[in-house]
């Protein structure tokens, strides 16, 4: 029996040409690496300067893709080797829970990102920064349909940048009983204007407007609700919410 894998790429153009160039490069990579998987580019349904709602884009993408054996929630700025993505799907189907198809997050520079977009392999470049040992659990998540049903939805109360990836990793762990698993290998992040700043913890860079900062603060408060959740029922109560509480 042929497995159906849906790759959902969250995307809304907000004026950053670097992000758009990354999207084009990532879609090309996916078409070459996993041509048998269906790729769905999904908007969050918002407009203008409204903070991007990745969870809404994921939920809309699931609806558009329809039934699948596994879902790959894949951001528009990540390059991940084919073998790792395939291994992640196998792990996700073997036991319900979230799988991250890399354990080393490599953040590429502006210059090296341009070279990768032009066709060079990201492994050839020294990253601007690195997170190892599974410290990053966002950017790309693989789950089975069974795990997705256990969680319910992606929580649309999160918007903008920060904490949603931590919350949803907790959600899948609690709802399925399986902690997040990682596939050994790199995930390559293509450069774009950051929504964060190393000098200002989770508060965004100098060019991030106040409403984006406010969204991050609200996300942090909501994440604390997930840290207190102990049952699948409580997780589904949280993921069905459609606004900040």
Describe, in plain words, how this protein is organized in 3D:
The chain is α/β, with parallel strands linked by helices and 245 residues long. The chain has one domain: Spore Coat Polysaccharide Biosynthesis Protein SpsA, Chain A (Alpha-Beta Complex). The chain contains eight helices and ten strands. The protein has a four-stranded mixed beta sheet. Strand 1, helix 1 and strand 2 form a beta-alpha-beta unit. The radius of gyration is 17 Å and the shape is globular. The mean pLDDT is 92.
What is the element layout, followed by pairings?
Layout: E1 5-10, H1 17-33, E2 38-42, H2 54-65, E3 70-74, E4 78-79, H3 82-94, E5 99-100, E6 104-107, H4 110-117, E7 129-131, E8 140-144, H5 145-151, H6 164-176, E9 181-182, E10 186-189, H7 210-228, H8 232-239
Parallel strand pairs: 1-2, 1-3, 5-9, 6-10
Antiparallel strand pairs: 3-8, 4-10, 6-7
Helix pairs in contact: 5-6, 6-7, 6-8
């Amino acid at each position: 029996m042929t497995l159906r894998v849906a790759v959902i790429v969250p995307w809304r153009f907000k004026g950053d040409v670097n992000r758009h160039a990354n999207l084009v490069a990532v879609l090309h990579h996916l078409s070459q690496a996993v041509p048998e998987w269906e790729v769905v580019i999904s908007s969050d349904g918002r407009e203008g300067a409204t903070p991007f709602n990745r969870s809404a884009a994921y939920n809309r993408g699931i609806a558009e893709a329809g039934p699948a054996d596994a879902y790959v929630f894949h951001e528009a700025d990540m390059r991940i080797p084919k073998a790792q993505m395939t291994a992640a799907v196998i792990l996700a189907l073997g036991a319900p829970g979230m799988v991250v198809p890399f354990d080393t997050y490599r953040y590429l520079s502006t210059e090296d990102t341009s070279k990768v977009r032009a066709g060079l392999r990201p492994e050839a470049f020294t990253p601007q920064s690195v997170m190892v040992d599974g410290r990053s659990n966002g950017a790309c998540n693989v789950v089975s349909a069974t795990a997705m049903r256990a969680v319910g939805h992606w929580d649309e109360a999160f918007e903008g940048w920060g904490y949603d990836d931590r919350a949803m990793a907790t959600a899948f762990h609690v709802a399925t009983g399986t902690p997040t698993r990682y596939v050994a290998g790199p995930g390559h992040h293509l450069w774009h204007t950051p929504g964060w700043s190393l000098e200002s913890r989770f508060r965004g860079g100098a060019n991030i407007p106040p409403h984006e900062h406010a969204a991050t603060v609200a996300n942090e408060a909501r994440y604390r609700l997930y840290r207190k959740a102990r049952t699948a029922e409580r997780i589904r109560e949280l993921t069905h919410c459609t606004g900040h509480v």
